[in-house]
Inverse folding.
């Protein structure tokens, strides 16, 4: 029997396909515009996107249409859901929550839209926690309350080679203070109240990744956690970051290592690596 509460999220959650299937999460893709071509994110080849970024081809992103959310909610209802919890990336970074709310107002099934105030796998972990609660038979209000509580227990720190892609996309936020620093200085970024903020600046990539692992570990405190490493065309860096994480914190389970969504790739740029933690 499907859960009576359906969980919907968006593609910036970067959830691997196996997790989407296992937890029965519906994912609504955002849109990517490469030069004059517009596609939903699930139709964009990441390699083509990375090449476009490196070649300075205009790249833009946009929220899903309200109708895309409406039909996701409709499909959930037709599958037996009596309510929907729709969890999305920070409203300060995108109009995705607004599009979801517009669809929710027209939906025939009750929908509650949640601004996660984050993105990437920290959003993905929120969706998974809500899906687990729904699968356990919890009522909509309880699933919603759990999502609100769990939102305070997820964190994410990102390494980027350059702030240029965030600047181009208008998502740079408080990290603008780091613009103009030497190329050898690598920024570490996080999200605070839904906005990108600087965490540290470190000389050199290797030191930056080591510092990232040290900083993210401050939220562990011996508690059970889920961990993920996301990357943008940086398999080797992601593998090394996962190794550093396991080495520094032996109690942390094997992290999920996954490519970042095309939307995040467009704003973080090639070479970016992020670590997300979700504490129980």
């Amino acid at each position: 029997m499907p859960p009576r509460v359906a969980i919907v999220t968006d593609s910036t959650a970067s959830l691997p396909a196996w997790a989407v299937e296992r937890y029965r999460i519906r994912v609504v893709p955002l849109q990517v515009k490469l030069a004059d071509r517009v596609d939903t994110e699930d139709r964009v080849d990441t390699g083509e996107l990375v090449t476009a970024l490196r070649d300075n081809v205009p790249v833009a992103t946009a929220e899903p249409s309200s109708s895309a959310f409406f039909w996701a909610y409709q499909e959930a209802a037709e599958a037996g859901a009596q309510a929907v919890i729709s969890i999305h990336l920070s409203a300060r970074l995108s109009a995705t929550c607004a599009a979801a709310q517009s669809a929710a107002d027209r939906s025939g099934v009750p929908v509650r839209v949640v601004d996660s105030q984050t993105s990437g796998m920290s959003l993905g972990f929120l969706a998974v926690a809500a899906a687990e609660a729904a699968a356990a038979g919890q009522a909509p209000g309880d699933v919603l309350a759990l999502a609100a509580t769990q939102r305070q227990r997820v964190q994410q720190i990102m390494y980027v080679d350059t702030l240029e892609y965030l600047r181009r996309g208008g998502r740079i936020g408080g990290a603008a203070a780091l613009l103009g620093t030497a190329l050898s200085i690598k920024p570490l970024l996080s999200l605070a109240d839904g906005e990108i903020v600087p965490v540290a600046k470190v000389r050199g990539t290797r030191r930056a990744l080591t510092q990232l692992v040290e900083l993210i570990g401050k939220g562990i405190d011996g508690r059970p956690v889920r961990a993920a490493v996301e990357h943008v065309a940086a398999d080797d860096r992601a593998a090394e970051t996962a190794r550093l994480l396991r080495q520094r914190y032996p109690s942390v389970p094997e992290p999920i290592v996954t490519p970042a969504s095309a939307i995040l790739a467009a704003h973080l740029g090639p070479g970016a690596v992020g670590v997300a933690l979700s504490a129980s």
Notes: Residues 154-279 form a domain with the Hypothetical Protein Tm841; Chain: A;domain 3 fold (CATH 3.30.1180.10).
